[in-house]
Each structure stands twice: as C-alpha cells, then as structure tokens.
Design a protein that fits this description.
Elements lengths: L5 E6 L16 E2 L2 E2 H8 L5 E6 L3 H9 L6 E4 L8 H9 L6 E5 L2 E3 L1 H10 L6 E6 L7 E5 L2 E6 L6 E9 L11 H6 L4 E5 L2 E3 L3 H11 L7
Length: 217
C-alpha cells in the first residue's frame, strides 16, 4: 500500500498565458486531458481534493465522470489569489501529511511512483525537475536537500510543482506554494520527470514528451 493518503490538486486558476480560455487541467494532450493523466497516477490514493475556481462547473462535471469520490474545494477568489491560497483552503482541516500537485502538470509515471515511495517517512519531500520552463523557479541543492529557491540565480533544477508536506501548514496568503515551502528549507528533494503546461511553448514541449512517458490509460 502506498504511504500517501491525501492529495490536493490545485486547479482553480485561469491559465491566461496559455490563451485557450479553459482551465489548464482540461487541456488536451495526446487525446486525453491533463487531469486524466493525473487521476490515473492517483488511482490508488484514497482521498483526493481538487480546488476549483475558473469554469468550475466544467471541471467538476468532467472529473465526476472519471472519479466520483473526489472532494471539490471552491476558491471563489481565484482571479486574485494564487495556488498557495487554494492549497490553504483545501488543507485547513487536514491533520495528516498530504501530497500537493499543481493541476497543469504532465508527470512521468515511473518517476512519480519513485517519488511516492519516498513519502511517508515523517518528513517533507519536494519535487524538483530539470530546468525547462520559461520562468523557472530555480532550486539550489545542498547534497540531496533544497537550500533555496530563486528566480534570478540559475541552477540545474527547478521547483516541479509537486511536494509531500509533513507538519507544514499552508498559510492564508496570496503567494505561491514554493514560497510557503521556502520557510521550512532545507528539505529533502526528489527528482521527477514532468512538464508544466503554462504557455503555448510549454504545451508543445509536453506533447513532445508524452511519447516518452509510459502511460497505460
């Protein structure tokens, strides 16, 4: 049995940079939507919460056709808040560790499985990936731990948008999840192969990478 019991997917944002006028979790890649791939990876995890905002009815209706036991958390302030506020709303009542995933990620199943198996050891683990996005949040490592994040100091890795958080409470603010995690550094890092879909170029790169990921949907 996998050690992770709770997952929160942040999928409330508008995704304006992608210029598709739809929630990024519903973007089609290789004939499936991003949320299809994510829910497939999470199929054995019992408790999933998804934060919705922009076009929430479309997101809810689509996801309910795939998995009926998902708990939806509304972020009515999605236009003026970021993913840390969404994560705060979804985890305010959680007393146990949880996995946080941004709703715009295409993730390699094998590396995700390795990440999951590192969880549940009474410590937080932060996902990192080789730098590939246009506006990377660089992750600077000290051995196997993240020493700091930076927008301006280049590094080999960047924040992957995935983290297993143990004894970390996300505060109610308008920052980003990595800024909340930053308060607790240094934390253990684990590489994940994934692609964020935030811009048209990101989307093209994700489509190109999908053939390398061994999905069996």
């Amino acid at each position: 049995m996998l050690p992770v019991k709770h997952v929160v997917i942040s999928a409330a944002g508008i995704g304006s940079r992608l210029e598709l006028n739809m929630p990024k979790c519903l973007v089609d890649i290789g004939g499936k939507k991003i949320i299809d791939y994510q829910l497939h990876l999470l199929r054995n995890i019992p408790n999933i919460r998804i934060v919705v905002g922009f076009m929430e009815d479309e997101v809810i209706n689509y996801i309910r056709k795939i998995r009926k036991d998902v708990i939806f958390v509304r972020n009515p302030d999605y236009r003026t808040t970021s993913n840390s506020y969404s994560l705060h709303l979804a985890t305010a009542d959680l007393k146990e560790p949880f996995l946080s995933i941004d709703g715009d990620l295409i993730i390699d199943p094998c590396s995700f499985d390795r990440f999951l198996r590192k969880c549940g050891q009474d410590k937080s683990i932060v996902g990192i990936t080789k730098v590939k996005t246009e506006e990377a949040v660089f992750a600077h490592l000290d051995d196997t731990k993240i020493a700091k994040f930076s927008f301006t100091e280049p590094a080999e890795y960047e924040w992957a948008g995935i983290a297993y958080l143990h004894n970390i409470k996300i505060q109610k603010n308008t920052g980003f999840v990595f800024k909340e995690i930053e308060k607790y550094l240094p934390l253990e890092a684990k590489e994940i192969y994934c692609h964020e879909v935030d811009t048209p170029e990101d989307l093209r790169n994700a489509i190109g990478a999908l053939s390398q990921y061994n999905y069996n949907l």
